[in-house]
């Protein structure tokens, strides 16, 4: 797929996805949505990609939905795809769910304004770093709509219900420092240091860990946020230890440690992940 509103580059086992409408502050469109979905599909199927970094071009990360349609911007409800109830699916939600389902770690390098869908699409990313220039806003109530992109599920789990409600009730735009204090982002960096800091986190993962183990760990931690009892985690953990414990990756992990050498894990995510959630299926739209 040829991209017109994002850039997709792979180097040093990192796929960098750059939102690329700088003249529009990278405002979100249905075209950008489709391109992001395709880019995450590409990253998932490429074993040379170990980590995904998402950032923005120019002075913004993403200033929210493109409001070029004026007052009717949100009247259609969302994308051309529909839910099983015949309601148009929210495009930001489709992107968030695709990021949630990704088998690779995802790092958000938030270089500037991240407002509306520009911030909610980052919530299923595993780590968020912000530039000192970044600004955040859950501005939906100020636009007469409601939080989208599955943020009503993700945001309270990340920052707590009280902080989530304050930001969403007020709809105000706030600083990177407030985002850090509210645990929305991991760290704040000078603009020139943002991508190097994101790549350093990625490199630590790439250099030391097994791709299949990381993919399964990502599934375990995210899915267990919605579990009703720790026994669900115990069942999944137990299957994971059994199946991975018999793998060539486990042998390599132990032997490289004993032999004091860097590991060379043979497992490939593209070959398929062990089924450690045999009784669980992710809800899907028909």
Would you spell out the secondary-structure blueprint of this structure?
Layout: E1 6-11, E2 14-19, H1 30-45, E3 51-56, E4 60-62, H2 91-101, E5 106-110, E6 113-115, H3 117-120, E7 127-131, E8 135-137, H4 151-159, H5 161-170, E9 173-175, H6 176-181, E10 187-189, H7 194-208, H8 211-224, H9 230-245, H10 248-258
Parallel strand pairs: 2-3, 3-5, 4-6, 5-7, 6-8, 7-10
Antiparallel strand pairs: 1-2, 8-9
Helix pairs in contact: 1-2, 4-5, 8-9
Rough shape?
globular
Cross-sheet strand order for the largest sheet = 1-2-3-5-7-10
Query: Main β-sheet, in a few words?
Result: 6 strands, mixed
Rg for CA atoms: 19 Å
Q: Say which CATH homologous superfamily of the largest domain is assigned.
A: 2-enoyl-CoA Hydratase, Chain A, domain 1
- H/E order of the elements? EEHEEHEEHEEHHEHEHHHH
Helix content: 25-40%
CATH class of the largest domain: Alpha Beta
Mean pLDDT: 94
Number of helices: 10
What name does CATH use for the topology of the largest domain?
A: 2-enoyl-CoA Hydratase, Chain A, domain 1
Cα separation of the termini: 25 Å
Which quaternary structure do these chains form?
A: single chain
Total number of domains: 2
The helix-and-strand class reads alpha/beta
Low-confidence stretches: none
Describe the structure.
- The structure is a single chain.
- The protein is α/β, with parallel strands linked by helices and 286 residues long.
- It has 2 domains: 200 residues, 2-enoyl-CoA Hydratase, Chain A, domain 1; 63 residues, Lyase 2-enoyl-coa Hydratase, Chain  A, domain 2 (Orthogonal Bundle), CATH 1.10.12.
- It is built from 10 helices and 10 strands.
- It has a 6-stranded mixed sheet, with helices on both faces. A 4-stranded mixed sheet has the order 4-6-8-9.
- Helix 1 links the parallel strand 2 and strand 3.
- The longest helix is centred in the first third of the chain and has 16 residues.
- It is globular and about 60 Å long.
- The model has no long low-confidence stretch (mean pLDDT 94).
